[in-house]
Each structure stands twice: as structure tokens, then as C-alpha cells.
Amino acid sequence: xxxxxxxxxxxxxxxxxxxxxxxxxxxxxxxxxxxxxxxxxxxxxxxxxxxxxxxxxxxxxxxxxxxxxxxxxxxxxxxxxxxxxxxxxxxxxxxxxxxxxxxxxxxxxxxxxxxxxxxxxxxxxxxxxxxxxxxxxxxxxxxxxxxxxxxxxxxxxxxxxxxxxxxxxxxxxxxxxxxxxxxxxxxxxxxxxxxxxxxxxxxxxxxxxxxxxxxxxxxxxxxxxxxxxxxxxxxxxxxxxxxxxxxxxxxxxxxxxxxxxxxxxxxxxxxxxxxxxxxxxxxxxxxxxxxxxxxxxxxxxxxxxxxxxxxxxxxxxxxxxxxxxxxxxxxxxxxxxxxxxxxxxxxxxxxxxxxxxxxxxxxxxxxxxxxxxxxxxxxxxxxxxxxxxxxxxxxxxxxxxxxxxxxxxxxxxxxxxxxxxxxxxxxxxxxxxxxxxxxxxxxxxxxxxxx
Length: 451
Hints:
Strand content: 5-15%
Shape: globular
Distance between the termini: 27 Å
Number of strands: 17
Radius of gyration: 22 Å
Number of helices: 19
């Protein structure tokens, strides 16, 4: 989820790089020089957006695949995370220069004109390589289904978590007999916990890190708690906004209290990890922070965002494999792409070490996964996902977060009143609902986004 690092990768978009990279004017990073020189009968070109620890884990999984399948050469390239990746992938698909396999956040798939910029998976071919619908959480699988066809094959679920320092909570009397944080089931419970934790916090540290000034994190937190309240976004036909401003105001007031009551400091919004490592009792972060905190050898735990509104739900996204559109897709290369994706999904123990929850359910029942901590403390989040609405403008770093996220931030920091911010959010949702997807010129109501 971080920004790209070189590690074992080399630049492809410079002079003399691959033609596809040069033709679109971007730099890609990859480990596939061996694939270019390989004598394997089939070559799979694979684009992803994984860097840092995720990138290292993906490289290890690809190397294991290469060893097990020497007849398939994998040419992997890592591109810049976020919207630049999606722009380049769209350009490649539209220009018939797409890779054989790609990765997308599942929330972005509806906006990628499935059927035009993405090709559907052959579920029978996936089954041939050991991957079936029954191996998935039903709701997660259906998120990748559009108009009855599978366009996104989930690799994982990555969720927002409540990280907590056990040493501080023990001092505050907030650890149970199981050495885990005491249960929280209401807003009053949660602020009671924060009050006691603050008393045990070293001077100069905030009680909780919330990424207060970050539009993406604030939006993700809002989605989680709005879902806990049973809030909806649009009607089934995607023609009307059903956003509940009363429920939204409750959530915005809840987020604002962390700042107004002195538990979170806007001035420390970009140093949450450092604060947590130095002794702050809480941090709300994505599960990709697990390697950071484990590497710092902290005595900590991690649970899904607390069910303060009575229902368990935490924001969730999913890295998923996709098939960028190719006019001549098929044959040995397409089958090899299916085989590679199925292999990575079904051999995701390495991936779980990075904090992500594997989408392939059999992995979760293995002794190796069940020994992972704190992964085994928050794995239940798979069954309590709070997702963005299934519309073309949603998904990780998408237009929805760009438009509505800043409104949430304005309420959290106190520059806008929660009820006024909720009204602005509803107006923005109405504007987005009427917008046309630049990928295919259709509004959400015209886009066939219902599974």
C-alpha cells in the first residue's frame, strides 16, 4: 500500500525500455529480465502496484511459481501506486497493449468498463487450477461479479484496524484476562477506554492516531461507522441518493470528539506510526502496518475498528487479479495467466505475513496462519466488511474519496459542523450519481453495476 521502491526491480520506462512502457511515457519496475531471455514456451506479462514489504512478498511468491512452472516465464512490472497505475492500465487496455494479468482494488473494477477494458475470468479454467467460488467468502466473490460474470479475482482483504499497545493498556487496566483489549460495544465504552488510556500515556504523545488530515483514511473510517449504523448510499437502480444525513452526522460527531476532547492531535496526523512505536496507546491504520509494528518488536494487538454503534463492521478493500482487455485474448498465454493467478491466491501464506487477510478461505484454517499474530485476532473482519458503494466512481483513492473525503476531514478538524458536513456529503453524492464515467460515458444507473 506504500510507494514503490526499487528493491530487485529495474526501470523499464527509460530509453531502451520495453516498447509498451515507452509508448505510454511511464516508468515501470520489474523483475522479469529473466523472463525476457527465457526459453519457456509461454510468457505472462503481469502488472502490479505492490511496493515495500508487499512487493517483496509478491516477488517471493512469483519466484516460487517460476520454480514450480519452468515452462511459464513471468515478466512482472510494478507501477506507481494509486491513480497513475489505473490511468496507465486503462491506456494500455484501450490501445490493445495490455498485459496478460493485472492487479486492481476491487472497488475500482466497476469504473473500469468491464467488458471493454477488462475481460471476464474463465471460472472453469480457474477451477481446473484449484480455485472455486466456494473457496471464498460469498460477499467477497460477488463484489467481483458484474452482469453475471467474474471480472475481479480477490487475492486478499485489507482492512482498517485498531492497533493497541498492550503495555500501556495493562497499566491503564484495559487488558482482559486473555491479554487482549477489553470489549467495546458503544460510543460511551470507547471514550471511556480512551479516557483511561490517556491517563497512562507518556507526556508528549497523543492517545490515538487517526490520520486526521488524510482524506482517504477519514473517508475509510466514515464508511466503517456509517455501515455500523446501517446507512445506505443509493437505491438499487442507482437513480436516487439514499444517504442518511442523521446517521452521517452521528458518525461525524463521533470522529470529531477524538479531537475536541484531546485524544487525537491534528498536528501529529502524519506521524501516527512514530507515535505508536514511541508509546501512544492506539493507532487506527490499515493492516499493512503489521510488518512495521512487528518489526519494531512492540507488544501490541490489533482488532477491527470497534463496533461503537452496535454492529461489527470495518472498512475493507481487496487486491484482486484482473484480465486487462486484449482483442486476441485466449490460448496458452491466457491459460497461463489463469494458472498464475490461481497459484498466487492458493499459496497466500507469504502474503498473510504482510498483514493482509487471504481471500482463499482454506489458508485461514491452516496451522501456520492460525499461529500468526495479530492476524489471528482480526481475521473475523472478513465477515464484517464495510465496503464503498458499488458504483463506477468508488474504490481505493477513487473520485468518491477525492470528493467526499475532504468534507469528512473538515468536520473532524472542526472547520465545519458535522450536520452541515453531512448535508454537503449528500449533495456531492447526488452530483457524482449524475456524472458519466469517462471510461464508457455511462452514469451509475446505466453502467450495469449490479451483481
